[in-house]
Amino acid sequence: MGNAFACMPRKEHRGAAAVSRSKRMGSARSARGGPKLTPAEEELLHRQALAMAIHQHLDSGGSMSRRIDAGASLSRRMAPGSTSSRRRGDLPDSVTNAKPAQIVLENLETKKIVLVHGEGFGAWCWYKTISHLEEAGLEPVALDLTGSGIDHTNTNSIATLGDYSKPLIDYLDKLPEDEKVILVGHSCGGACVSYALEHCPKKISKAVFLTATMVKDGQRPFDVFSEELRSADVFLQESQFLVYGNGKDKPPTGLMFDKQQIKGLYFNQTPSKDMALAAVSMRPIPLAPIMEKLSLTPEKYGTVRRYFIQTLDDHMLSPDAQEKLVRENPPDVIFKIKGSDHCPFFSKPQSLNKILLEIAQIQAPAALLPGKASSEETVAEKS
Fold first, then answer.
1. pLDDT confidence of 354, banded at 50, 70, 90?
2. What one-character DSSP code corresponds to residue 222?
3. Catalytic residue check, 117
4. For this structure, is 314 an active site residue?
5. Which residue of 7, 237, 294, 311 pairs with 340 in a disulfide if CB–CB is 3.0 to 4.6 A?
6. Residue 64: pLDDT above 70?
7. Do strands 204-210 and 305-311 pair parallel, antiparallel, or not at all (unpaired)?
8. Res 237: pLDDT
9. With contact defined as beta carbons under 8 Å apart, do 2 and 71 qualify?
């Protein structure tokens, strides 16, 4: 823990040069058998790519804080889903696009929001979200899960969901006894959030599943994608995306999509500069954590309020699959973002920020009734 990305001075890089270097040195190349980068070279590459994206964001009128706290180190193409009716009266679809009310920080249960990335990503993917949350006076922390971002653990050695989630659990364990956080998990990072809810429920105020694998007890994260990727058995026998880090005669250890597949699945609405950042920063996906069944209990997992954010132009986890998730494991409140792909932190950052601010301001009810979910829904239309 303690790794942090810092913005580089503008004169130390040029966008085209950074992209050129990334093509020669990218971690994806080393994953396919090219020259292996040293840890220092790989960390420098990630910093350069992130700095390029940040400064382009600034040049286009965005804003960015000086430091990103990184506290530790496919699908068939579905048409956008239709928005179902909300249960808050006749509010317009763009209700969350209204200028948010001033946050009274003293009234929040917690100001700390821990951002947990999805498969292949790292703390770097949250750079826009961190900027927005910090401007609102909150305290975002973005973690690198094991083998992700600039954590140099070999992804082929990650054998369990516990191994993969260790940086998150370590972070929660070290919090002061009376401090709680809001957890936000993206995609398969939702499994890590669920794992944390079961192991550290007293440290978590709320859990937010961002187009994420919000599984039931006894379910595997992979099962969420099974209808679109075929059954696990067939996938493990036939998939061309598998990585055999321990040899072809051993079980597969990871997944690696090529650039065009990643673009179609994850980034169909994402700006090109963020796709460039992802192209040089994404890592192979450890397979064991998404194939592991979770054990979740009402006494631990069931005591924390859960919120789900749906993305309605998502090609990786289709709107239909997301609807099935929330039907089978109902959260307290459902939010929806129109026009967002699988990565709203890139494609709809302002809409995502407004929803996270709204969730942060939701107060705990006087009495939490087990098994009761409000199933409220609200929709964000534009970033």
1. very high
2. G
3. no
4. yes
5. 311
6. no
7. parallel
8. 52
9. yes
Residues 311-337 have pLDDT tens digits of: 999 999 999 999 999 999 999 999 999
DSSP H stretches of helix in the chain: 15-25, 27-31, 39-59, 127-135, 161-173, 189-199, 226-229, 232-238, 259-266, 272-281, 319-328, 344-347, 349-361
Q: Of 111, 66, 4, nearest to 357 (Cα)?
A: 111
Within 10 angstroms of residue 369's Cβ, the number of other Cβ atoms is 7
Q: How far apart are CA 85 and CA 95, in angstroms?
A: 13
pLDDT for 364 equals 80
Q: Which of 165, 274, 342, 383 is catalytic?
A: 342
Label residue 206 exposed, middle or buried (CB < 10 Å: 0-12, 13-18, 19+).
Answer: buried
Q: Is 367 exposed, middle or buried (0-12, 13-18, 19+ CB in 10 A)?
A: exposed
- pLDDT > 90 fraction of the chain, expressed in percent and rounded: 55
Consecutive H or E run containing 119:
none
Helix%, strand%, coil% for the chain, nearest 5 = 40, 15, 45
Q: What is the rounded distance in angstroms from the CA atom of residue 64 to the CA atom of residue 223?
A: 37
**Residues 381 and 370 sit within 8 Å (Cβ to Cβ):** no
Q: 14-25, pLDDT tens digit by residue?
A: 344 443 444 434
Q: Catalytic: which of 75, 131, 187, 318? A: 187
Q: Is 187 among the residues known to form the active site? A: yes
Q: Which residue has the higher pLDDT, 263 or 96?
A: 263
User: What angle in degrees, to the nearest 10, is found between the helix axes of 272-281 and 39-59?
Assistant: 170
Q: Among residues 69, 144, 313, 314, which one is catalytic?
A: 314
Residues in the chain: 383
Using a 10 angstrom Cβ sphere, with 0-12 exposed, 13-18 middle and 19 or more buried, the burial of residue 44 is middle
Helices and strands in the chain, H and E counts? 13, 12
